[in-house]
């Protein structure tokens, strides 16, 4: 399926941009699993590459920015951070109705609901996967973004206040029914924004299934993907969202399992407190305010899920089936409220 990226259009364009005639007769296949932007494998005799574009229907003005995503990937590769290589960027939106970019296809495992057979089979190997995932986040936050050419990539000052307000606006634009508890969570978050934060590149959606794991070196991150929400801001927002996705053993059967990577409940992976401790050690940062950031993660994820529901209803997700999401928004909101009320990590 190549809705949104027809091969007859993409192939000749890629042949012209790369100077490789073999792309003129390319095939395009949608990769299932993405709940936001659409991702395709483009193949030809020249090899395989990956194309990223926004959903095919109406999208919010601040969402799904492919040019920003391609820019941060292009900046991080040369400084040694693991990302795919940018092959070509279409900036005008004239070809497919929206800007898009093409990047190299990195081989490896994308881990969602289970580990691949023969990979991470022991507790020691799963511990390594957890350690390297956390170190990968600390490494991102250690990048000198000015030296990487990203000095104007965002406005770090006041980042968290803007984030809460931004996602509140996203909620207002996509809600299908009133949810006063979500509105109250936004109000409570604004009231508790920490007074000071560091300033780093922020991925905005850092989690296990947004990485490609090396198939031969267990746990090594071959590439970090999905940079659409990246900017400059507070690094603990990334850690808080990672913990929002993190499943402890007690979470194994919760309603969130189908939405977020579930393998971290397996023995060997650290629990939430262990993730926070490992990040603090790797980065040297104080994580005392972390419950606030986890609560914000639940708030943000609730709004993202609502956006997915709205786009699915509008047919803008390339015909993909994500199953039922009934009640997920309310569940996420209640978890966020519990983090703030009880000063816990999820």
Strand order of the largest sheet: 1-2-3-5-4
- Cα-based radius of gyration, to the nearest Å: 20 Å
What is the CATH class name of the largest domain? Alpha Beta
Q: Unreliable segments (pLDDT under 50, ≥5 consecutive)?
A: 58-63
Give the full name of the CATH homologous superfamily of the largest domain: Aminoglycoside phosphotransferase (APH), C-terminal lobe
Give the integer mean of the pLDDT values.
89
Order of helices and strands: HEEEHEEHHHEEEEHHHH
Number of domains: 2
CATH architecture of the largest domain: Alpha-Beta Complex
Structural class: alpha+beta
Overall number of strands: 9
* Count of helical stretches: 9
Form type: globular
Could you tell me the strand content as a percent range? 5-15%
CATH topology-level name of the largest domain: Aminoglycoside 3'-phosphotransferase, Chain: A, domain 2
Main pleated sheet: 5 strands, antiparallel
The helical percent reads: 25-40%
**First-residue to last-residue Cα separation:** 38 Å
Task: Tell me what you see in this structure.
By secondary structure, the chain is of the alpha+beta class. The protein has two domains: 7-104, Phosphorylase Kinase, domain 1 (2-Layer Sandwich), CATH 3.30.200.20; 123-342, Aminoglycoside 3'-phosphotransferase, Chain: A, domain 2 (Alpha-Beta Complex). The protein is built from nine helices and nine strands. The protein has a five-stranded antiparallel sheet with strand order 1-2-3-5-4, with helices on both faces. A two-stranded antiparallel sheet has the order 6-9. Helix 8 (290-313) runs antiparallel to helix 9 (328-342). The longest helix is centred in the last third of the chain and has 24 residues, at 290-313. The protein is globular, with a radius of gyration of 20 Å. The two termini are 38 Å apart. The model is unreliable at 58-63 (pLDDT under 50).
């Amino acid at each position: 399926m190549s809705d949104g990226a027809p091969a007859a259009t993409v192939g000749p364009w890629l042949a012209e941009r790369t100077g490789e005639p073999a792309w003129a007769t390319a095939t395009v296949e949608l990769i299932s699993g993405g709940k936001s932007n659409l991702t395709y494998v483009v193949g030809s005799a020249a090899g395989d590459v990956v194309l990223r574009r926004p959903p095919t229907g109406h999208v919010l003005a601040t969402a799904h920015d492919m040019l920003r995503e391609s820019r941060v990937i292009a900046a991080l590769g040369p400084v040694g951070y693991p990302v795919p290589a940018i092959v070509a960027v279409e900036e005008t939106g004239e070809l497919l109705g929206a800007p898009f970019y093409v990047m190299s296809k990195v081989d490896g495992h994308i881990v969602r609901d289970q580990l691949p057979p023969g990979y991470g089979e022991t507790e020691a190997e799963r511990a390594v996967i957890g350690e390297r995932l956390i170190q990968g986040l600390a490494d991102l936050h250690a990048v000198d973004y000015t030296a990487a050419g990203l000095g104007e990539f965002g406005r770090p000052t006041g980042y968290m206040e803007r984030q809460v307000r931004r996602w509140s606006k996203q909620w207002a634009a996509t809600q299908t029914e009133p949810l006063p508890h979500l509105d109250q969570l936004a109000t409570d978050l604004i009231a508790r924004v920490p007074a000071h934060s560091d300033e780093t590149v922020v991925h905005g959606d850092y989690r296990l299934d947004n990485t490609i794991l090396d198939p031969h070196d267990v746990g090594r991150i071959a590439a970090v993907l999905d940079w659409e929400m990246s900017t400059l801001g507070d690094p603990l927002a990334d850690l808080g969202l990672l913990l929002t996705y993190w499943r402890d053993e007690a979470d194994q059967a919760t309603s969130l399992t189908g939405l977020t990577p579930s393998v971290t409940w397996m023995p060997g992976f650290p629990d939430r407190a262990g993730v926070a401790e490992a990040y603090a050690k790797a980065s040297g940062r104080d994580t005392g305010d972390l419950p606030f950031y986890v609560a914000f993660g639940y708030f943000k994820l609730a709004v993202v899920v609502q956006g997915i529901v709205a786009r699915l209803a509008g047919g803008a997700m390339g015909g993909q089936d994500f199953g039922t999401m009934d009640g997920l928004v309310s569940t996420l909101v209640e978890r966020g409220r519990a983090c703030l009320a009880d000063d816990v990590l999820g």
